[in-house]
Amino acid sequence: xxxxxxxxxxxxxxxxxxxxxxxxxxxxxxxxxxxxxxxxxxxxxxxxxxxxxxxxxxxxxxxxxxxxxxxxxxxxxxxxxxxxxxxxxxxxxxxxxxxxxxxxxxxxxxxxxxxxxxxxxxxxxxxxxxxxxxxxxxxxxxxxxxxxxxxxxxxxxxxxxxxxxxxxxxxxxxxxxxxxxxxxxxxxxxxxxxxxxxxxxxxxxxxxxxxxxxxxxxxxxxxxxxxxxxxxxxxxxxxxxxxxxxxxxxxxxxxxxxxxxxxxxxxxxxxxxxxxxxxxxxxxxxxxxxxxxxxxxxxxxxxxxxxxxxxxxxxxxxxxxxxxxxxxxxxxxxxxxxxxxxxxxxxxxxxxxxxxxxxxxxxxxxxxxxxxxxxxxxxxxxxxxxxxxxxxxxxxxxxxxxxxxxxxxxxxxxxxxxxxxxxxxxxxxxxxxxxxxxxxxxxxxxxxxxxxxxxxxxxxxxxxxxxxxxxxxxxxx
Length: 477
Hints:
By secondary structure, this protein is an alpha/beta fold. It has helices at 11-23, 34-43, 83-92, 104-119, 126-142, 151-163, 180-189, 211-216, 233-236, 252-264, 290-295, 301-307, 323-339, 347-355, 361-375, 409-423, 428-435, 439-451, 459-462, and strands at residues 3-7, 27-31, 48-52, 54-55, 58-59, 73-78, 96-99, 170-173, 198-202, 241-245, 266-268, 275-277, 281-286, 310-313, 344-345, 380-381. The radius of gyration is 27 Å and the shape is globular.
């Protein structure tokens, strides 16, 4: 049985982590100081260690020197994540880096991974561990409040960490609700401008008649109702960062003036000819394809090229795999902390969340978690208590399958089955529900196709993943 050492001077955190570890099959030891931790290691060498960065008698980093076994995994926990501490933890040999408040889902996933590695061969691949730890540190320290460890998000974290310390203009591209403003805030926090203002402006939420005044300010008496001098966003963000959300909604005539500010740093308040200057880093965002917006005349081409110095695409939630469950658990943990509860999702709810397409992305997921929390009658949030909006999980529209005239019914049937499997990420149980056939019938069809050398797009890669579908063996692949 794997053994876990928890080192933290917060008794409530130790108790919570101990309960989670026990559920995952670990024996546990707890220490509140470095001294106690060293004694615990002397008594029993742990397979994994969760250590807080700040302890009463020193830094948790010092514990790396006391962990003798090469296979011991050390995970650093902190409530004050920074890039520097993440890098130091990696250099000391940390295999992961968690930010408080801890997500129970992330801790469970980490412990399961540790248990698997304990039961496997004792040798570990240092390069792979370093890469995983670097990705985790980037997610925790480099991306602030962003959550997730999917490949798509790890790429975002890497881009943010690289561009944040520079003065480059960044264009954030992504669907509504993917976290563009959160990414902009993270870039600001990791930049040299972090101590100055971060001002976010939704260009589509301001009246076209007032947006110039709001952006650049106005002088007293410059128009009816201008009873006093007003400083615009550029002046108020001096020394800091100005985030222009939905940039394609900005009137074209103002886009010309914005381009001039970006090029020269100078602008004029409405009602004066005196030029002012402001030291501002501009970050912009759009939920549209910017090139299509240029083609449609919604965005000036010269402004687009000026903003597109460093583009970052925020992936939609449907492309982030298990991040959906991690984010949902984090949101639920926050609600539990706020209200003093211990509610958790039933397994079937977590599975439904993973299968849902989430057209509203993280914003939709946040609303769902809040509704599910409110409607739950006890500590377990079950599928029967989930709001009706979640039912689209079982009936989400699929991709269009074109069937040319002359195709046989058998071939059309095969194409429909393959397309449905692709939409369901290879999960055969869900595909069978959508197709209206039994799981056994679906397996029989797939066996026939495999015998002829015909495989669905995910056929080879998902056979092992779906071995647990309804207790049936996976189809040949």
